[in-house]
Amino acid sequence: MAETGWSCDANDAIHITMVQPGDTKPKTLSTFHPQFTYPIFGDDEQIFGYKGLVIRLRFAAHDLRPHLHISYDEKFKPVGDTTPLDLLGTLKPFVSEEALINLPDYEKAVQEDASAKDFTPPGKMVYSYEANERQYEIWAGSLADPQVRLLLDRVQVLVSLFIEAGTPLETDDPEWSLERWTVFFVYEKVTPPTPTASSYSIVGYATTYRYWYYQRDRSHTPTIKNDDFPPAEIKISELPARLRIAQFLILPSHARSGHGTHLYTTIHAFCIADPTIGELTVEDPNEQFDALRDSADFCLLRPEFLKHNVNLNSDPNGAYSRKQRPRAVPTGVLIPSKTLLEIRTAFKIESTQFAHILEMFLLSQIPKSHRLAGGTNLARLLIKKHKADDENDRRYYWWRMLTKQRLYKKHKELLDELELLDRVEKLDDTVRNVEEGYEITLDALEGRLPESEGENAAPTGSRRQKRKLAVEDDDDEEENGTELAKRPKV
Ligand SMILES: CC(=O)SCCNC(=O)CCNC(=O)[C@H](O)C(C)(C)COP(=O)(O)OP(=O)(O)OC[C@H]1O[C@@H](n2cnc3c(N)ncnc32)[C@H](O)[C@@H]1OP(=O)(O)O
């Protein structure tokens, strides 16, 4: 434990333990430390006043019954204003009330839980899968369901401990508001450790909510109607909506085994199956989540792009373009915009995310030796431009133009404040960084795709790193009012 004198690292002091009944008393399934404790203990994540401090947060693996247990070897004797931290007072707002019973009572409750044998996760099962010869199920339920609320209230402290800038949900909102929320739980189906124990063990969960999706029907001229007032009851669950993933968590003991990807694709399938949902969006995704989402969306859309022969036209304006540079990027002839819109609408993918996946796909269709990652001669291409002899060089030229065009439109206000030369340089840096980010994802996907071209050799060790982007996405900041969890995403 990183301890200096009377202060210790809060991340080390907290132990999160999943338990299930054992032969005579509950046994530990897994134990892990939090990633963050600053929402509870402050920015420096230090706890003053204890030696040998262990704050153990236990959860029953099936119904997440919680328990908080604090132990230490020595406690600092107050000197004037210098007092040890009030641990219970500090932790109370973050853990549910029922976690504060004594340990023997908790252990008895877990060990002798008569209902455990018949426990099923709340809501209904929406997907099941096998991984590494183990069985998993994903269940979805409305937050208006008291059982969903109970589980969420019990586990929400993990949001503060694992999701940067994440805040636990208010679960005592009015019912109509709770109905907007669907919570997805991932459980492993296990062989019960005792005859009366549960066969479910938590893996992770995600919260999602519907929010109004304004779509103007331009085929109708707005008219004043004499409808009854007040109107008949409106059910929020039936209004056109976007579904937004708010919190997404896979327990560290189950991380990097594909469960996050299963959970995300299940939520996506849930959106596609619901005619009232127009798009899937994500609130404040972090870098890891973006990587997971990009990979999953790429695997989903790639077969569709291939089916429709989506590719960059290397001669967008025919022979004419070879002599004279078009005044604007000829998007309509470069890519099949109508088909792409149909794909995007059918797959309910938000427009910026769709643009990323499309750009990544178009890039992947250019042989690596004609891309920056494969050592193409960019200086020569920038002289030859759309007149380059090789069609893949021309494709790469147009790929850069198309991506720059999107980036420019998205960040127009910011870029227009710069001098022309600075603007060109900034845009150039950004497209390069975006391209590097795509190459990393394509590398990571190598071998996972059914018809892998073998273009992107898998790297040794993770190359996943923060995408260095020259132009930051100010939209996210505006929408979410926080910069902490946000990764610059262009
Ligand atoms: C909206 C938000 O809430 S944003 C916040 C997201 N949540 C958090 O950051 C909380 C803490 N972290 C987590 O909960 C998890 O680590 C998550 C959600 C980020 C990722 O979940 P995981 O289950 O680990 O994801 P998954 O296993 O599907 O993929 C992650 C990696 O594992 C790799 N992977 C996928 N399947 C396997 C497998 N069978 N074996 C080994 N590795 C695999 C993937 O390649 C991926 O690697 P990469 O990111 O380097 O490309």
Helix/strand class? alpha+beta
Bound ligands, named by name, code or SMILES: acetyl coenzyme *A
From the structure provided, what is the oligomeric state, counting identical versus distinct chains? single chain
Strand content: 15-25%
The main β sheet shows up as: 6 strands, mixed
Strand arrangement in the largest pleated sheet: 10-11-12-13-14-15
Query: What is the terminal separation in angstroms?
Result: 40 Å
Lay out the secondary structure.
Layout: E1 3-4, E2 7-9, H1 10-13, E3 14-20, E4 27-32, H2 38-41, E5 46-48, E6 50-51, E7 54-60, E8 66-71, E9 74-75, H3 87-91, H4 103-111, E10 124-131, E11 134-142, H5 146-155, H6 157-162, H7 175-178, E12 181-189, E13 200-212, E14 241-250, H8 259-273, E15 277-282, H9 287-307, H10 319-323, H11 331-334, H12 337-347, H13 351-364, H14 378-384, H15 391-410, H16 412-416, H17 420-445, H18 474-480
Helix pairs in contact: 8-9, 9-13, 13-15, 13-17, 15-17
The protein binds acetyl coenzyme *A.
Brief sketch in words of this structure:
It comes from Penicillium frequentans. The protein has 490 residues and is of the alpha+beta class. Helices cover 36% and strands 19% of the residues.
Structure description:
The protein has helices at residues 10-13, 38-41, 87-91, 103-111, 146-155, 157-162, 175-178, 259-273, 287-307, 319-323, 331-334, 337-347, 351-364, 378-384, 391-410, 412-416, 420-445, 474-480; strands at 3-4, 7-9, 14-20, 27-32, 46-48, 50-51, 54-60, 66-71, 74-75, 124-131, 134-142, 181-189, 200-212, 241-250, 277-282. It is of the alpha+beta class. It has a six-stranded mixed sheet with strand order 10-11-12-13-14-15. A hairpin with a 2-residue loop joins strand 10 and strand 11. 34% of the residues are buried. The structure holds acetyl coenzyme *A. The site of acetyl coenzyme *A (ACO) has 26 residues, from strand 14, helix 8 and helix 9. It comes from Penicillium frequentans. One of its GO terms (molecular function) is histone acetyltransferase activity. It catalyses: L-lysyl-[protein] + acetyl-CoA = N(6)-acetyl-L-lysyl-[protein] + CoA + H(+).
